[in-house]
Amino acid sequence: MQISFLILSSLACLAAATPIEKRHISAWPSPIRTYFTALSSRIAAIRDTAPKTLPTCTFTSAVLPNSSLPAPSPGLVPWHIAVGRGTQNYTCDPSTPQAAPKPVGAVATLYNASCLAAINPYMLSLVPAAALSVSSPLPGKTLFPAQSVLSGHHFFSDATTPIFNLHTAIANYGITFNKKIANVTAPATNAGNVPNQGPDGSKPVPWLKLQTQIPNGNVEPSDELGGVKEVYRVNTAGGAAPSTCVGMPAAFEVQYAAEYWFYGTQ
């Protein structure tokens, strides 16, 4: 598999430019500054390599970030890797303000990060926190700072059934209906030592392992369910609700971003 045109063109253009550290990045938010400092180092390494070769994108051998989540099932390999940028959604009962908010799903736009996962997983791990430092992309736009193109949408059919629609004009990885089978507490900081918090200071939502399931009459006969078998949510930033409903409205959203790794048979 070949490296994406966007990554190739970005690296080629930037490699000949002034190193990013020497530009005025000191005023940028810390997550963005950390990301572009890492990008500058990567560009310098490529530029100084002889012969002048660019890395190839073989993301089926990409390695899932380390955690105590159960490993992918035998025989499964990465099919697609994306960064999700959106909101975790919650409700509160005004009559019980001391109760914890109730999660009612999430909505996110997914951006293709497969090649970045294969070429430089460290840089990919910085993207979720960096993505929360800027406004959510407009429809049809790429995800800053990674400039990743749209790969699908994430939403829920009910409070416990996450759905990933990976059907776009560029590619079709199908639609997956899932159930949670494991979760672990997310690290407070990412690999660049940047806090994994949302714009409002929210903590990161847990890392998850999901397993695909057959939907109960929710799919049109023409829909392609694809071959995805397991999904991981890792390197999360933001999205967690406050501990109680004190001062919260009956329904609210919390900004978040995360990596999503989709596994299928080879």
Structural class: alpha+beta
Radius of gyration: 19 Å
- For the termini, the CA-CA separation is 14 Å
As laid out across the biggest beta sheet, the strand order is: 1-2-3-4-5-6-7-8
How would you name the oligomeric state of the polypeptide chains in this document? single chain
Uncertain residue ranges: 1-28
Strand content: 25-35%
Q: List SSEs in N-to-C order.
A: HHEEHHEEEEEE
How would you sum up the major sheet? Answer: 8 strands, antiparallel, barrel
| Overall average residue pLDDT | 79
* Approximate helicity band: 10-25%
Please tell me what the overall shape is: globular
Quantity of strands, as a count: 8
Q: How many helix segments? A: 4
If you had to describe this structure to a student in words, what would you say it looks like?
The protein has helices spanning about 5-15, 30-45, 115-120, 120-130; strands at about 75-90, 100-110, 150-160, 160-165, 170-185, 205-215, 230-240, 250-265. The chain has about 270 residues and is an alpha+beta fold. Strands 1-2-3-4-5-6-7-8 form an 8-stranded antiparallel beta barrel. Strand 3 and strand 4 (about 160-165) form a beta hairpin. Helix 2 runs antiparallel to helix 4 (about 120-130).
